[in-house]
Write a structure and sequence with these properties.
The complex is a heterodimer of chains A (277) and B (267). By secondary structure, chain A is an all-alpha fold. Chain A contains 9 helices and 2 strands, in the order H-E-E-H-H-H-H-H-H-H-H. In chain A, a hairpin with a 2-residue loop joins strand 1 and strand 2. In chain A, helix 1 packs across helix 4, helix 3 crosses helix 5 and helix 7 packs antiparallel against helix 8. Chain B is of the alpha+beta class. Helices cover 34% and strands 15% of the residues of chain B. Chain B has a 5-stranded mixed sheet with strand order 2-1-5-3-4. In chain B, strands 6-7 form a two-stranded antiparallel sheet. In chain B, helix 7 crosses helix 9. The chains are: A mainly alpha (277), B alpha+beta (267).
Chain lengths: 277, 267
C-alpha cells in the first residue's frame, strides 16, 4: 500500500461497514446534520399513495369510461367484458376466460416500465429498501449483492418494457385524439377532459422518450457519433430530456392518476364535462 | 449556542466556530472539540490549518493544491463526503458545530488521513487504452463529437469521494474485492466509448468485463457518486447507466446479439 499500512480482512464476528476494523472509530451510523430523511419519506408517501389509488382503481373494474374519454388505466381494454367505447381501444384479445379487471392486463406494461426505470430504481432502493437510505447514511442490511442475482437481475429487461411503453403511449395518444368528440361521438368538439387527456399523454411521451434505455437505443450504443449524424442529433435531444427524467417521472405519474380520476368523476356522475366547443 | 464575539480582523466579520475533529489512528480515536477563529472567505481546510498552527500541531491532514484540483483533501464534513478546500465556511450557520472526520469507507492512517490504496489496486485492474494497430502515436484523428463523452470523465481529479460514498463498499467491506467502484467503472465506460480503443480487436470486451470482472451488477444506481462529485461529472447518468445498457446489449438482449451477428456490425 502507498502508505505502508495493510487492510485487515473482515471477520464474521466483527462489525462491518463504516464500523469495520481499521476504519475511523466512530459509533454513529452517520454524522449528517441535514434533514436527509425528508426525501426518502416523501418518496414512500408519494409512491404508496399512487400504488394504493391505482390498485383500487384497477380492481373495481367500473367507472372507467365516460364518452368520449377512457381512463388511461383501462386502455387498451383487452378483456371481452369491457364497455363498448365506440371506436375506442377495445381489443378483446383475452376472450371470455379472463375473469379479473381488464386493467390488470395492460397495467403490467407501464408499471413494469416504471418499476425497472433507472430513476424509480434509485428512488425505491433508497426509500423502501434503505439501500442506502441516503448518501453516507449506513444501510441496515448485513449483506448486499446488488443487481447481480434473481430477482433484481431482471431489471435488465427495462428496454423491453420501454418498447411496450411506446405502444401504450401510442394508444393513449389515439385515446386523446378520440377526445375531440362529444358524448354523442360527433367530431370537432373539445371538453376539459380533452385537455386532461392531452396533458397526460404529452407527459407520458416525454417521460417515455427521456428513458435511459431510449437514450442508449437512439444513439448511446454508438462509438462514432460522427458517422451517424442523425442519431447523434437525436441522442442529444433525448439527452436533454433525460436530464429531466426524474421530474418527468413524477409529473407523468401524477398526470396519469389525475386523468384516471377525472374520468372516474365523469363516469360516476359527479359532474358533467365542461365543453369548450 | 451563542455566537462568539468577532475576533477583530480587518474585515470585522471574524467569529469563533465550534469544530469536532476526529483524532486517532487504526487502533482507536474519537471526536475532539475545538473552538477556532474563522474569517470571511475561508474554507474548512483553512480552519484545519489554523488548528494545526494554534492548537493541534500534530493534527494529520492530507492536502496539496487548495484549489479543488488535486483531490487530496477529501474528508467528511458533517457526515457528507466533501473536499476540505472547496467547502466554504459561509455555507454553515455560525452557531453550528462542524464535524470533520476522515473518509469512512477506507482504513484510517491517522486523524484525517486515510489509506486509499484500495483505489489504486482497482485502477490497476482496469486494462488500459489499447492503441489501434495501424496508427502510430501522433496519427490519431478523432472528431470532437466522438470524444465528448470520454472527455467529461477525464475531468475526474481522483478525490475518491465517489468511492467513499458508494454504499456497495462503504457499508460492505466484503464487496471490495469484487466491485471496482464508480470511479473505475467510469474509467471502463470512458475506454469503451473511446473512438480509437482497440481492446475488442485484442479479444477484450469491456462491456462484458464491466459486469464480470469489475462488478457493475453491484451498482444499484442510487446516484450518491454523482451527488458528491466535486467536478460535477454525471457519473451515474453518463457513465454507469450507459455502461449497464452496453452490458445488457452483450448479455441480456438476444435481439441486439442477433442483429450484431446478422449484420456483422461493431458499434
Amino acid at each position: 500500500m502507498a502508505t505502508g499500512t495493510t487492510e485487515r480482512p473482515p471477520s464474521p464476528d466483527q462489525p462491518g461497514g463504516v464500523r469495520a476494523p481499521g476504519r475511523a472509530a466512530i459509533k454513529a451510523r452517520h454524522l449528517r446534520t441535514d434533514r436527509w430523511w425528508v426525501q426518502p419519506t416523501a418518496t414512500v408517501a408519494g409512491l404508496m399513495a399512487f400504488i394504493i389509488y391505482s390498485a383500487w382503481r384497477a380492481l373495481i373494474n367500473d367507472d372507467y369510461y365516460a364518452a368520449p374519454y377512457v381512463s388511461p388505466f383501462y386502455s387498451p381494454c383487452l378483456g371481452s367484458d369491457c364497455v363498448d367505447m365506440k371506436g375506442g381501444p377495445n381489443f378483446a384479445l383475452f376472450g371470455d376466460w379472463w375473469f379479473m379487471s381488464p386493467a390488470a392486463i395492460i397495467l403490467v406494461f407501464p408499471l413494469g416500465f416504471r418499476f425497472t426505470c433507472y430513476y424509480y430504481r434509485k428512488s425505491y432502493y433508497r426509500s423502501f429498501w434503505a439501500s442506502p437510505p441516503s448518501c453516507a447514511v449506513a444501510e441496515p442490511h448485513k449483506t448486499y449483492t446488488g443487481e447481480n442475482r434473481f430477482p433484481l437481475i431482471l431489471q435488465n429487461l427495462h428496454r423491453y418494457f420501454f418498447y411496450a411503453a411506446l405502444v401504450v403511449a401510442a394508444i393513449l395518444t389515439y385515446d386523446a385524439i378520440l377526445g375531440f368528440r362529444n358524448s354523442d361521438y360527433e367530431w370537432g368538439h373539445m371538453g376539459l377532459g380533452t385537455l386532461v387527456l392531452w396533458a397526460n399523454v404529452v407527459l407520458i411521451w416525454l417521460y417515455t422518450l427521456s428513458c435511459h434505455s431510449c437514450r442508449h437505443i437512439v444513439g448511446g450504443r454508438l462509438r462514432h457519433f460522427s458517422k451517424h449524424p442523425v442519431r447523434y442529433r437525436a441522442w442529444g435531444w433525448v439527452g436533454k430530456l433525460n436530464a429531466r427524467h426524474a421530474q418527468l417521472a413524477w409529473a407523468s405519474l401524477i398526470s396519469v392518476g389525475l386523468a384516471d380520476f377525472y374520468v372516474f368523476l365523469l363516469a360516476s356522475g359527479a359532474f358533467d364535462d365542461p365543453m369548450l366547443f | 449556542m451563542t455566537t462568539a464575539p468577532t475576533t477583530g480582523t480587518s474585515t470585522g466579520t471574524g467569529y469563533t466556530a465550534r469544530f469536532k475533529v476526529w483524532r486517532g489512528d487504526a487502533e482507536g480515536g474519537g471526536l475532539e472539540d475545538f473552538a477556532v477563529e474563522v474569517n470571511e472567505g475561508e474554507v474548512v481546510l483553512d480552519i484545519i490549518h489554523r488548528l494545526q498552527a494554534t492548537q493541534a500541531p500534530d493534527l494529520a491532514v492530507r492536502w496539496n493544491c487548495k484549489a479543488g484540483k488535486c483531490g487530496s483533501c477529501s474528508a467528511e464534513i458533517n457526515g457528507r463526503p466533501r473536499l476540505l478546500c472547496m467547502t466554504r465556511m459561509s455555507v454553515f450557520e455560525r452557531d453550528e458545530t462542524i464535524t470533520v472526520t476522515p473518509l469512512r469507507a477506507f482504513p484510517v492512517v491517522r486523524d484525517l488521513v486515510t489509506n486509499v490504496g484500495f483505489n489504486y489496486e482497482k485502477a490497476r485492474e482496469v486494462p488500459s487504452f489499447v492503441p489501434p494497430e495501424k496508427l502510430a502515436p501522433g496519427e490519431y484523428r478523432m472528431q470532437q463529437e466522438d470524444v465528448d463523452r470520454s472527455q467529461e470523465f477525464r475531468k475526474c481529479i481522483e478525490c475518491f469521494l465517489c468511492q467513499d460514498t458508494c454504499h456497495v463498499v462503504r457499508d460492505h467491506e466484503e464487496n471490495k474485492q469484487a466491485f471496482a467502484g464508480p470511479r473505475f467503472l467510469m474509467r471502463v465506460a470512458e475506454l469503451d466509448m473511446h473512438p480509437l480503443d482497440a481492446a475488442a480487436d485484442e479479444g477484450l470486451d469491456r462491456k462484458t468485463t464491466a459486469q464480470e470482472e469489475h462488478g457493475l451488477g453491484y451498482c444499484n444506481i442510487t446516484k450518491c457518486c454523482t451527488e458528491v462529485c466535486p467536478e460535477n461529472i454525471k457519473i451515474t447518468d453518463n457513465a454507469l447507466i450507459p455502461l449497464k445498457e452496453r452490458t445488457v446489449d452483450r448479455k441480456y438482449d438476444p435481439l441486439v446479439w442477433l442483429g450484431n451477428k446478422i449484420f456483422r456490425r461493431r458499434e
